[in-house]
Amino acid sequence: MPLRILSSPPREELRRWLAQRNAPSADGEALEIQVRTILQAVQCEGDAAVARYTAQFDWPKATPETLRVPETALETATIPAEDAAIIAEAAARIRAFHERQRRSSWLTHDPDAILGQLVLPVDRAGLYVPGGQAGDTPLISSLLMTAIPAQVAGVRSLAVATPPRRDGSVHPAILATARMLGITEVYRMGSAWAVAAFAYGTSTIPAVDVIAGPGNIYVTCAKRLVAGTVGIDMIAGPSEIIILADASASPRGLAADLLSQAEHDPMASAILVTPEPGLAEATREELARQLAQLPRAELAEAALRQWGAIILVADMHAGMEVINTLAPEHLELAVANPWELLPLVRHAGAVFLGHHTPEPVGDYFAGPNHVLPTLGTARFAQALSVDTFCKTTSLVATSAAYLAQHGAAIARLARLEGLEAHARSIEARIPKEE
Q: From the candidates 185, 286, 301, 329, which is the catalytic residue?
């Protein structure tokens, strides 16, 4: 098994190693030029450009008139009843979790002032749902994880973009899930041109205020370039997992969990941290056995070879220092008593506690959002949430008595900054002494 074992490596060296997944390169510069060209084309040509790129890369018969999925297609989309029931249960759990994130507006009352904050949803959001294997592996969970927080936030207008299959259809599971969520606006478009259409608007597709949802490097680059024109959820990189394990962990379970992330992408990172050399070797052997049986073995093997590792540490506290340095997207605490270690977690997108909480529980079903910060950004960023679709507005109401008491001080601060008109704005409301 081509998985390196590192013994107590310097933490900053580990961080620099993993940061190479996001290092600028000639390929990255060429990609940005390509994406900028797409964005400019959509901004100038609108529907025509979106349809042209869709026809070139996804559905040869795409036209501006076919971009929007007819509502009849949503109404008639059918999936097995058992699948629909599972999706509905997952949606209910995700909604219940995100309902607890809802924030309220507030006011404070002083004798001469009322201060406060309005918490308001954006008017419109665009949700990107990746196609997945030419549309044959519908990423239902991405739709649930973006649409439900937006709905809980109170966003009135939601639009979904997803690449069409080669015959122009959208997988019925995506359409049925959209219908289940009450979403009727679905567009057959993907990649950077979908992001551009949401950011700038076209004759067919009204512009949005926030774009959310994971995607490939073209989607990620496009979101980065339109950020500021619209809000975005985050700049997401390749998936990653770190597992901290003690002697109570099962090599079989550890190997399965590492592979669950490695199979995403050759750039995915899967790392086991443990003070147990025997467990490390047993897990490496189990990885080789399970990898041989995996349908996406080639992808997973490339990820493990390039960005996977088993890191041997002196003890659990040293392991937690490694984890906090790397700030992983997913952290599994595969130890006998994970709650003892939880207070030591400073930087992680999501934490999965104990031997019976593998990461896919959170990906699909438990309720927390699976759109998480990657590439060490968990040091300052957090999961997609209801707040992604909200903004705050400050409220200030002061009385004449307030200005009489504090006006001179406010005017003095304005003059210290050289802003005379600011000072006079205050003084115009303060009666002059006779």
A: 329
